[in-house]
C-alpha cells in the first residue's frame, strides 16, 4: 500500500489553546493546514507517549461543517503513521465524552477529537482539532507545547494513497496495514451511563410523572439523548428538543447558557414548565441545568452534585475529593470541607483534572463554564451531569428549586456571575491584565466600598502529581467574607481577545438567599470596573454576555 510523503510548509500559528487548535473554517481550509497539525500530533505522540506503531487511535468529532472531510484525512494519515487500529465514530461522529470513553475502553494510545465545542459552525464558523492521550483526557501542556513546536518546522506529512472507507459503514475495513473500525458512536457510552446511574429509579420517576426537556441545540448529543432519555429511560418522544445534529447547529451557537439556550430557559420559567430542563453544547461536554423557575449556576451544580453523588450507585462509597477550576465559585469547597475530602483549585481547562483523577485524588470535577464530570472518563460530560441530576431527583423526590434552597441553607449561598467582553482589542486586553498584575502587591488591605481586599495574586498552579507549574492563570482578588473577583483572558477565542470577569459573593444568611443575582453582585460589578479599568481600557461599558 503506497504511502505518500507530501512536502509542506509551516504556518507558524498553530498554537493549541485551552482545548486544542481553534480557527475559523476558511483558515483551516488552507492547503495542508489540518494535515500539518495532525502530523505534528502523531510525531509528538510518538516522541512523548509511545504513540504510533502498533497502537490504537480513536477519531471522531461533533459533526460540524468540515468534520467528515478532516476525519477522512486523519484516518488516512493515521494509517500512514503506523497505527494498527483506527476506531472511528460512524459518520465521523463522537461526542467528546464518548471519545474519551472509547480511548479508555479500547486501550488506545490517544484520540483526535474534531470540535470547536460551543462555538458556531458552518462554512464561516469555527473548527478545531484536539489531541487526547491514553487516559482519555486532553493532552497535557508538555505534549501540546511539543505539538506546537513541531508545527513550526514541519516539512512533510504522511498519508496513504487510498481513500478512507465509507464512514457510514459500521464494521472493520482494511486501509494499508491498518484496520479501520467504524463504530456506533452512542452504544458504548450509553452502556457506561447504565453502570453509573440507577436507571430503574430514574425510569420509575419518569413513569411516575417527573417531566423533563433536554435541548441538544442541533448538536452532537441529539442521538445520545434520544437513545438514553427517551429509549432507555422511557421519557416520552418530544423530550429531546433540537435533537437532529446539523453542520451549522441550526445557525445558532450550541452553547448551553441563558443567552443561547433562551427558548429552553423561557420554557422552564413559564407556566408550562416541566420539572427539569437541561441542555448540552456542540460536542456534548457542557451542560446547563434548570428546574421549574430556577437556573442552577454551574458552580452551584458542581457543589450540589458533589454533596449528593452518593445517591448514585457509582459513587455510593463516597467521593475521594473535588477539583474545580480557579474561576469556579468556592461553593464546592464548602462541600469538600463538610465531607472531609480533598479540594483542588486548578487552572482553567479540563486537562488539569487528568492527573488528579488518575491518581484517585478526586472523583468529581467542574468548571464555571458549564462543565462537570467525574472519574468515569477524562473529559467533562454534559449528559453525565444531566443523569446525575435525574438520579438525585428520583431518589430525593424533591424539586430542583427545593434541592438548591436546601443546599444553600446547609452551606450558604454563593451568588455568581461571569461577564464576558468579547472581541476586545488584543493589546488593550493584555494591557488591562498587565496593569492589574502591576498593582497586585499594593491591593492587599485596600478598601473598596464595604469590602476589604484580603489577598490578590496572579494564580499559578503546581500539579501535585507531576510537579509541573503553570503560571499567569488569572488575577484573583479575594475580599474578606469570601467574595471574589477574578480577571482572565480566554484561551479559546478566535477573534481578538475575550476578557472574562468572574464575580462571586458568599452569603451565609438564609434570610438573604432570595436576592436577585444582579442586586447581590452590584457592588462587586462596580468594583470590577474600577479596579480592572475595564471601561477606560476597552471602551466597553457592558459585557457582551453574562452567564
Ligand atoms: C473556556 C472555559 C473553560 C473551558 C474551555 C473549554 O475556556 O472558560 O472553562 O475549559 O472553554 O471548554 P476559555 O475561553 O475561558 O479559555
Ligand atoms: Zn464543549
Question: What key phrases describe this protein's structure?
Answer:
single chain; 547 residues; alpha/beta; Alpha-D-Glucose-1,6-Bisphosphate, Chain A, domain 3; TATA-Binding Protein; seven-stranded mixed beta sheet; seven-stranded antiparallel beta sheet; binds zinc ion
Any overview of this molecule?
The protein is an alpha/beta fold and 547 residues long. The chain folds into 3 domains: 3-185, Alpha-D-Glucose-1,6-Bisphosphate, Chain A, domain 3, CATH 3.40.120.10; 189-411, 3-Layer(aba) Sandwich (Alpha-D-Glucose-1,6-Bisphosphate, Chain A, domain 3); 413-546, TATA-Binding Protein. The strands form 6 sheets. Strands 2-6-5-3-4-9-8 form a 7-stranded mixed sheet, with helices on both faces. Strands 20-21-24-25-26-19-27 form a 7-stranded antiparallel sheet. A 5-stranded mixed sheet has the order 11-10-12-13-14, with helices on both faces. α2 crosses α5 (141-151). The longest helix has 18 residues, at 426-443. The site of zinc ion has 7 residues, from loops.
* Biggest sheet architecture: 7 strands, mixed
Helix content: 25-40%
Number of domains: 3
Alpha carbon gap, first and last residue:
52 Å
Small molecules held by this entry: 1-O-phosphono-alpha-D-glucopyranose, zinc ion
CATH architecture of the largest domain: 3-Layer(aba) Sandwich
Shape: globular
The DSSP helix count reads 17
Q: How many E-type strands? A: 27
Please state the oligomeric state of the protein chains shown: single chain
CATH class of the largest domain: Alpha Beta
Q: Assess the beta-strand content as a share of residues.
A: 25-35%
Amino acid at each position: 500500500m503506497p504511502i505518500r510523503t507530501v512536502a509542506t510548509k509551516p504556518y507558524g500559528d498553530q498554537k493549541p489553546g485551552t482545548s486544542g487548535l481553534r480557527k475559523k473554517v476558511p483558515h483551516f481550509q488552507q492547503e495542508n493546514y489540518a494535515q500539518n497539525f495532525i502530523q505534528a500530533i502523531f510525531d509528538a505522540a510518538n516522541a512523548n507517549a509511545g504513540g504510533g506503531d502498533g497502537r490504537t487511535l480513536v477519531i471522531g468529532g461533533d459533526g460540524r461543517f468540515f468534520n467528515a472531510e478532516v476525519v477522512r484525512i486523519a484516518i488516512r494519515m493515521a494509517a500512514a503513521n503506523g497505527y494498527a487500529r483506527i476506531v472511528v465514530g460512524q459518520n465521523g461522529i463522537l461526542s467528546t465524552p464518548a471519545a474519551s470513553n472509547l480511548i479508555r475502553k479500547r486501550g488506545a494510545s490517544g484520540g483526535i477529537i474534531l470540535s470547536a465545542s460551543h462555538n458556531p459552525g458552518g462554512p464561516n464558523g469555527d473548527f478545531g482539532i484536539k489531541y487526547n492521550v491514553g487516559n482519555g483526557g486532553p493532552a497535557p501542556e508538555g505534549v501540546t507545547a511539543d505539538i506546537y513546536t513541531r508545527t513550526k518546522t514541519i516539512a512533510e506529512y504522511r498519508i496513504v494513497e487510498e481513500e478512507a472507507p465509507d464512514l457510514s459503514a459500521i464494521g472493520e475495513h482494511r486501509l494499508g496495514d491498518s484496520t479501520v473500525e467504524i463504530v456506533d458512536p452512542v452504544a458504548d457510552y450509553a452502556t457506561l451511563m447504565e453502570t453509573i446511574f440507577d436507571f430503574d429509579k430514574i425510569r420509575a420517576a419518569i413513569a411516575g410523572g417527573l417531566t423533563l426537556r433536554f435541548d441538544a441545540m442541533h448538536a452532537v448529543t441529539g442521538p445520545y439523548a434520544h437513545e438514553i432519555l427517551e429509549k432507555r429511560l422511557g421519557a416520552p418522544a418530544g423530550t429531546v428538543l433540537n435533537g437532529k445534529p446539523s453542520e451549522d447547529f441550526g445557525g445558532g451557537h450550541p452553547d448551553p447558557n441563558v443567552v443561547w439556550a433562551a427558548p429552553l430557559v423561557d420554557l422552564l420559567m413559564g407556566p408550562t414548565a416541566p420539572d427539569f430542563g437541561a441542555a448540552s453544547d456542540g460536542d456534548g461536554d457542557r451542560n446547563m441545568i434548570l428546574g421549574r423557575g430556577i437556573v442552577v449556576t454551574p458552580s452551584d451544580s458542581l457543589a450540589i452534585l458533589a454533596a449528593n453523588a452518593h445517591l448514585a450507585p457509582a459513587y455510593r462509597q463516597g467521593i475521594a475529593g473535588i477539583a474545580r477550576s480557579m474561576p469556579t465559585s468556592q461553593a464546592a469547597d464548602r462541600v469538600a470541607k463538610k465531607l472531609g475530602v480533598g479540594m483542588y483549585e486548578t487552572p482553567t481547562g479540563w486537562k488539569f483534572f487528568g492527573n488528579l483523577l488518575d491518581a484517585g485524588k478526586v472523583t468529581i470535577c467542574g468548571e464555571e463554564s458549564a462543565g462537570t464530570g467525574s472519574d468515569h472518563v477524562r473529559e467533562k460530560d454534559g449528559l453525565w451531569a444531566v443523569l446525575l441530576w435525574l438520579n438525585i431527583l428520583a431518589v430525593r423526590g424533591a424539586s430542583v428549586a427545593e434541592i438548591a434552597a436546601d443546599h444553600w441553607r446547609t452551606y450558604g449561598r454563593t451568588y455568581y456571575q461571569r461577564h464576558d467582553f468579547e472581541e476586545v482589542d488584543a493589546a488593550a486586553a493584555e494591557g488591562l491584565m498587565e496593569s492589574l498584575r502591576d498593582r497586585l502587591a499594593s491591593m492587599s488591605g485596600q478598601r473598596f466600598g464595604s469590602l476589604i481586599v484580603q489577598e490578590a495574586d496572579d494564580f499559578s498552579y503546581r500539579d501535585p502529581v507531576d510537579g509541573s507549574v503553570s503560571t499567569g492563570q488569572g488575577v484573583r482578588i479575594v475580599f474578606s467574607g469570601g467574595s471574589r473577583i477574578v480577571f482572565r483572558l480566554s484561551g479559546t477565542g478566535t477573534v481578538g481577545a475575550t476578557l472574562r470577569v468572574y464575580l462571586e459573593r458568599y452569603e451565609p444568611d438564609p434570610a438573604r438567599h432570595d436576592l436577585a443575582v444582579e442586586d447581590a453582585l452590584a457592588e462587586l460589578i462596580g468594583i470590577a470596573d474600577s479596579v480592572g479599568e475595564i471601561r477606560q481600557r476597552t471602551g466597553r461599558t457592558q459585557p457582551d454576555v453574562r452567564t
